[in-house]
Specification:
The protein is an alpha+beta fold. The protein contains 22 helices and 16 strands. The chain folds into 3 domains: 309 residues, no CATH class; 93 residues, no CATH class; 130 residues, abc- transporter (atp binding component) like domain (Coagulation Factor XIII, Chain A, domain 1, Distorted Sandwich), CATH 2.70.50.60. Helix 3 packs across helix 4, helix 4 runs antiparallel to helix 5 and helix 5 crosses helix 16. The longest helix is centred in the first third of the chain and has 30 residues.
């Protein structure tokens, strides 16, 4: 008996750690757009309304996002208290984000532990354990349950409500405390996000169906009504308890809820969407089935495929009513969400914990069937070994995707590259890596970085460095770097000014996550007064001439003036050796009156960087018209780099592959 208790305790502790660790490690690593733009601020406003005794002020967003704001406010309050007490000596954005998220992670862990406690009463223990392992290691579920956001909290609320509802159906006397827990889970779900309202008709239909199956005759309606009143009373009580604005300003809350359904659900997303390789406003009815397939783990997908095969297995048979309840809800939820124009793959997250249970039943049935002919002791040993092996594979899978599990897609269907080619991807992940690279640049505090997702980038920039949104499609003055993000280029060219860089010039640095390029960092060239005619101009397909500046200006040249040309060269590809730049000055009669040969360590130049090179020239003492010719050559062989573009000089003047850079008047 003591050993069994230790085993049970070990199981609970193991699951708790498995729920926690993938969600809590690297918790402040990166911030998503919605967290940076909305939820951190909304949580602060929610807390301020509570502190000010203004319950109506807690009606902030139509999502309604109440659970998210509660948890964000709790996490923020704890962090501020620890700072005041001196327990946390320093503060940072990463700490702010992690503290707000930590309360969310702990809430998910608590709900999942309760859901497991209920589930193990309904189905064979190995199946319940596998379901819990899949909840703990499902990259899609893990990714969003580490965020200060609404979709995962909706998902946990749905799971708790449905498992509690199944427990009520399963209990011989239909004890009302299970019904109350189901109602509390449903209220938690709808307070997280408005699609949770689907649990109201679904739960009432299940209650009615259960009572009808019992053939209560005239008592059916009375008993079903009594159950519905219990469910509805608890549901309403939890709403009023957790949402102060609901009793202080109910009309305002209803109006917000209406806006959430009509404006944010019926209308397509204002920035468009991406599906099956194309930009689209409304992905359509295939979107969520494709998203489900791509977001499943290989183990979950195989388990779902096994479920019909093992449906008649003795260990699965008692769980059929619970499994059918989950299957029906999954179908209804997918169909309901497909009716709305605004669709993102994260919106379908609530079905994933349910699919994990179904997949666990598939694997459990396989284990039971494979060991059916063994002696009971041997069968139990092999079954535990099978569960342990599946748990190990699931744990290795989440470890493989960590800490960017938000970028995870089904490896059996092409993995992350296929996901990025099929569904909208990129929500802020990777901007921490962008900031890490930018922070290492010597000039980063002296120039601006241009990006369309500055809220995910700026929190991780070093002191003195800052990113700005492009102004009217143009680069900012003093811009030094441009960042193009994955979501900008899915399905086509990005908006200006990024379209002049992405696919046109090589990036300085590319941020890659799980084999997918997520961000491209470009060197922004300076403004130039002298631009080559018939651009672009390249030498050897590796050195591109952006243009030059002159001091003094070319219209102010006097005889014997010292002219300094600063030319900016784009390194388009690695150079195998160091090259020399030649500069010839030719007069109107075609005579070479000046010449320079300048060595440069071109083999060390960084691809994507604009290299400024100064060319000092002594102009002739005679007035007249002069042409400045330039080119590149290999000093070991004398072979010149082929010129492409621009105006080539007459080979009789300076040989082949010389560019007419400028024509100047000395007077």
């Amino acid at each position: 008996m003591q050993w069994r208790r230790l085993q049970t305790l070990g199981l609970w502790l193991g699951l708790a750690l498995l729920f926690l660790l993938p969600r809590v490690l690297n918790l402040g690593l990166f911030v998503t757009h919605d967290e940076a733009e909305f939820w951190l601020r909304r949580s602060k406003l929610f807390l301020q309304a509570l502190q000010a005794g203004d319950p109506a002020g807690t009606a902030i967003t139509p999502h309604p996002g109440v659970t998210t704001m509660w948890l964000g406010a709790i996490g923020t309050s704890v962090r501020e208290g620890l700072l005041r007490a001196g327990i946390l000596p320093t503060d940072s954005f990463a700490l702010l984000l992690a503290s707000a998220r930590l309360a969310v992670v702990l809430m998910h862990t608590a709900i999942l532990l309760v859901a497991f406690a209920l589930l193990r009463r309904l189905i064979w223990l190995p199946i319940a354990v596998l379901a819990a392992v899949f909840w703990a290691t499902d990259p899609f579920f893990v990714a969003y349950s580490r965020l200060l956001h609404v979709d995962a909290l909706l998902s946990s609320g749905v799971l708790l409500s449905l498992v509690a509802l199944a427990s009520w159906r399963h209990s011989p006397l239909h004890r009302p405390h299970w019904l109350a827990l189901a109602a509390a889970g449903a209220a938690f779900a709808v307070l997280s996000k408005s699609p949770g309202v689907i649990l109201i008709p679904f739960s009432l239909l299940v209650i009615g169906a259960v009572r009808w199956q019992e053939r209560c005759g005239r008592q059916w309606l009375r008993q079903a009504s009594s159950d519905a009143l219990i469910w509805g009373g608890v549901y309403l009580g939890v709403l009023l308890l957790l949402y102060p604005a609901l009793w202080a300003a109910p009309l305002q809350v209803l109006e917000l809820f209406k806006v959430g359904v009509t404006a944010e659900g019926i209308q397509p997303h204002q920035s468009g969407n991406f599906f099956l390789g194309q930009r689209t406003d409304v992905p359509g009815v295939l979107h969520y089935p494709v998203a489900i397939a791509l977001r499943l783990t290989p183990l979950t997908m195989l388990g779902l495929l096994l479920l019909p095969v093992v449906w008649r297995q003795p260990v699965v048979r008692p769980a059929r009513p619970t499994l059918l309840l989950l299957i029906v809800f999954v179908v209804l939820f997918v169909c309901a969400m497909s009716l709305f124009a605004k669709q993102f793959n994260r919106y379908i997250l609530p079905v994933f914990p349910l699919l994990d249970v179904l997949a666990a039943a598939g694997w459990g049935g396989l284990l039971a069937g494979a060991t059916a002919r063994l002696r009971p002791a041997a069968a139990r040993l092999w079954q535990r070994g099978g569960v342990a092996l599946l748990a190990l594979l699931a744990t290795l899978n989440i470890a493989l995707w960590h800490p960017y599990s938000i970028a995870a897609f089904n490896q059996l269907l092409g993995g992350a590259p296929m996901g990025a080619r099929t569904l909208s991807a990129g929500w802020g992940e990777g901007f921490n890596l962008v900031a890490d690279w930018l922070n290492q640049q010597e000039d980063i505090t002296g120039v601006l970085t241009v990006s369309r997702m500055i809220t995910s980038l700026n929190p991780y920039m070093k002191a003195g460095a800052q990113a700005f949104f492009p102004r009217e499609g143009e680069l900012r003055r003093n811009a030094g770097y441009l960042v193009v993000y994955l979501s900008e280029v899915q399905g086509g060219a990005p908006l200006p000014p990024s379209d002049r860089f992405y696919g046109q010039v090589p990036p300085l640095h590319v941020v890659t996550i799980h084999g997918v390029d997520y961000a491209w960092i470009y060197d922004v060239p300076p403004e130039v007064a002298i631009q080559p005619t018939r651009a672009p101009v390249t030498f050897g397909a590796v050195l591109g001439l952006h243009g030059c500046n002159a001091a003094p200006a070319l219209d102010q040249l006097a005889p014997a003036t010292r002219l300094t040309l600063t030319c900016h060269w784009l390194v388009r590809a690695p150079l195998p050796h160091d090259d020399w730049l030649f500069v010839h000055v030719v007069d109107g009669q075609g005579q070479r009156v000046a010449q320079l040969d300048l060595p440069y360590p071109t083999s060390t130049w960084q691809v994507g960087r604009y290299m400024p090179l100064e060319i000092p020239l002594e102009l002739p003492a005679q007035t007249g018209t002069y042409r400045i010719l330039i080119g590149w050559y290999d000093p070991t062989t004398g072979q010149r780099l082929p010129l492409v573009g621009g105006v080539p000089a007459d080979p009789a003047l300076s040989g082949t592959d010389a560019l007419v850079l400028a024509e100047v008047q000395v007077r």
